Amino acid sequence: MMNDFDVVVIGGGPAGMAAALAANEQGARTLIVERDVRLGGILNQCIHQGFGLHYFGTEMTGPEYAERFRKRVAQQNIEVMLESMVLALDEDKTVTLLSPQRGLMKIKAGAVVLAMGCRERTAGAIALAGTRPAGIYTAGMAQKICNIDGYLVGKEVVILGSGDIGLIMARRMTTEGAKVKLVLELMPYSSGLKRNIVQCLDDYDIPIMYSHTVTRVEGSPRLTGLYYAPVGKDRKPVLAEEKYIPCDTLLLSVGLIPENDLLSGMDIRMSPVTGGATVDQNRMTTVGGVFSCGNVLHVHDLVDNVSREAETAGKNAALWALGSHNEQPECVNVTASDGVRYALPQRISAKEGKIRLFFRVGNVYKNGRLSVVSGGKEIAFRNFRVLAPGEMGSIDVDAAAIEGDVNVRLQL
Known about the structure:
FAD/NAD(P)-binding domain; alpha/beta; globular
């Protein structure tokens, strides 16, 4: 049976656009399905600088980065369906979607690229105690309300969590005239980039308290204040040291969840650490012809890395659909230990060439050695001064040196 499209890309953010362009370059008939009214994803609301330094060699805002890709997509023979929601994905790569222009429809794809991004954890997800007043937002929602809708969400702000979006919103709220009174972080370290700690908190004299969390909120109908306390080694609050701070707004930057709901009925092996699929070096999942990239695979700190990874997925999806590489290869497994939370890809099938492994650590480590071991031998290493959870690292290995399962670990 002829496929409707060689490659269907689900999601039109930075990952989806880069994947579609890479697939199109291989000669694949490509479709992007995007639920929003325009391509670009989260970048459309990220009006701050800091994007594109690695990919384009110049610093730009999120909308500028997205616009460069939108123009490239428009110049290619890539079909785009906006305001369209994918309802189901079957293992035979049939995509069921709902479009206001075309109604309910099924599309048969030769290969599918998952590029749906991620969503934020909410107050309900972290079981925030207290009343349910107005004035509690995820940091990303506050960013959208401020940068796209043009409204200030509050005047006296506390931020829970030091993820990059929360740090950036601390600066944004300050420049818009609000008072950011405090940033609280459950862990003893920040989960954001070091540069954002400096540029968004230190430069604006915004205090951050590590190993602290919100214990309860109060107020009706709007937030009037909250209680916070330090946490012990078990990360549970020490209520005897609870303190109160008045505020009218609480922003939550408490983690991101890859949007993998579509995969619930598929036999795709998932990673309990990343929340995304397990993939090989081509970013193919355990279902042949289904690829994953970007924040739906694992949360990135730089959009430049998202674009590069998506190009890998898009290119190999096209090769699979066009028949060049359409068999599941035998793989060795990649694991992580001794301080490394996860390594990706989780499987390697290549017999030659360089394989770039990405990893995140589980704590702040100084003056050590990152070691990659296969077959009882060290096949790659990297000495480091500092490794932190907020920054994704990478190391290259020679595929020809792999003699069995691969383990990425720290030596201190």
